[in-house]
Design brief:
With 315 residues, the chain is α/β, with parallel strands linked by helices. It folds into two domains: 115 residues, 3-Layer(aba) Sandwich (Rossmann fold), CATH 3.40.50.720; 176 residues, NAD(P)-binding Rossmann-like Domain (Rossmann fold, 3-Layer(aba) Sandwich). The strands form two sheets. Strands 8-7-6-9-10-11-12 form a seven-stranded parallel sheet, with helices on both faces. Strands 2-1-3-4-5 form a five-stranded parallel sheet, with helices on both faces. β6, α7 and β7 form a beta-alpha-beta unit. α1 packs parallel to α11, α5 packs across α7 and α8 runs parallel beside α9. It starts with a strand and ends in a 10-residue tail after the last helix. It binds 2-keto-D-gluconic acid. The site of 2-keto-D-gluconic acid (8YV) has 10 residues, from loops.
Length: 315
């Protein structure tokens, strides 16, 4: 039986691209200079697309594909996909939730521990040969402190669940309280920041959460507070955060995401109160393979039934 045709819009990891080629007849676009020409050349035959949270899909690309009926995205964020435009053209969009919750939550905890106990800073201290010159500085205990979570979605919940192992008090900020958790809901984000020792940003990206962690929220976090962002760079006022870190008006920040990736504010690289990570929340062999298989399963389901398995939720 001939393989179904799928447009792969944007690069994916080599192993995921290899699996797509095993399952489908693949045409690639998105990264080439003549990408739109490639899309137009195959437009009449393309009904399904694979893409990623990182690369995304614009209205222009969707407009150029009159027979497109399904977009399967690799990743849990869809702020780079024009979902509203796709829906307006009756195009279904899927993402890859749940299979990545644990890895992203693990990274948030690793970042929090590293930042608070100065693990990466201590490693640099050892490699510079500084130990014979004196002891490494005292740092801050994580256990039994106060954890504030901005966005108690799937990943936020996984982060909160891990707090029981550190006997931490957990509160969260959502647009609305969730009914099936015992954590305290804080409707005022600045108040949550003032209360928390660690403020972890786990909200979905997009216009609704742009600069949600504002200058005033960062000020409320205060000199003993740490900010950890494993969500989207757009959710934090990056200029205000950079200034706060330079002035040491917050204790520190661990960042896996930035407003203009792969660029980030260069001054941050000079600061010891910042842990800088290159958007690796889902970047494990196991999780990226599971995400890739979920993209493939969504495409197979579309071709067999006309429906996607994990559609992006309606706002
Ligand atoms: C992507 C991400 O998985 O899942 C997301 O939304 O932000 C990332 O972990 C990765 O960048 C591939 O697009």
């Amino acid at each position: 039986m001939p393989k179904q045709l799928v447009l792969q819009h944007g690069r994916l990891s080599p192993s995921v691209e290899a699996r797509l080629i095993e399952e489908f007849d693949i045409v690639r676009s998105g990264e080439q200079t003549d990408s739109m020409a490639i899309i137009r050349q195959h437009a009449d035959a393309i009904t399904a697309m694979a893409t990623s949270a990182r690369h995304g899909v614009t209205a222009e690309v969707i407009e150029a594909l009159p027979r497109l009926r399904a977009i399967a995205s690799f990743g849990v964020g869809y702020d780079n996909l024009d979902v509203a435009f796709a829906r307006g053209r009756d195009i279904a969009v899927s993402y890859t939730p749940d299979v990545l919750n644990d890895c992203v939550a693990d990274l948030a905890w690793g970042a929090m521990l590293d930042l608070s106990r100065g693990l990466s800073e201590a490693d640099r201290f050892m490699r510079r040969g500084d130990w014979p010159k004196g002891a490494f500085r005292l740092t801050n205990r994580v256990s039994a402190k106060k954890l504030g979570i901005v966005g108690l979605g799937r990943i936020g919940r996984a982060i909160a669940q891990r707090a029981s192992g550190f006997t931490m008090d957990v509160r969260y900020h959502n647009r609305r309280p969730v009914s099936d958790v015992s954590y305290v809901h804080e409707s005022d984000l600045a108040a949550l920041a003032h209360w928390a020792d660690y403020l972890v940003v786990a909200v979905a990206g997009g216009s609704d959460t742009r600069h949600l962690v504002s200058k005033s929220v960062i000020e409320a976090l205060g000199p003993k507070g740490y900010l950890i962002n494993i969500a989207r760079g757009s959710s934090v006022d990056e200029d205000a955060l950079t200034k706060a870190l330079q002035a040491k008006s917050i204790a520190g920040a661990a960042l896996d995401v930035y407003s203009t990736e792969p660029c980030f504010p260069e001054v941050l690289a000079q600061l010891d109160n910042v842990l800088l990570l290159p958007h690796i929340g889902t970047a494990t062999h196991e999780t990226r393979a599971a995400m890739g298989e979920l993209v493939i399963d969504n495409l197979k389901s579309f071709f067999e039934t006309g429906h996607l398995l994990t559609p992006v939720p309606v706002a």
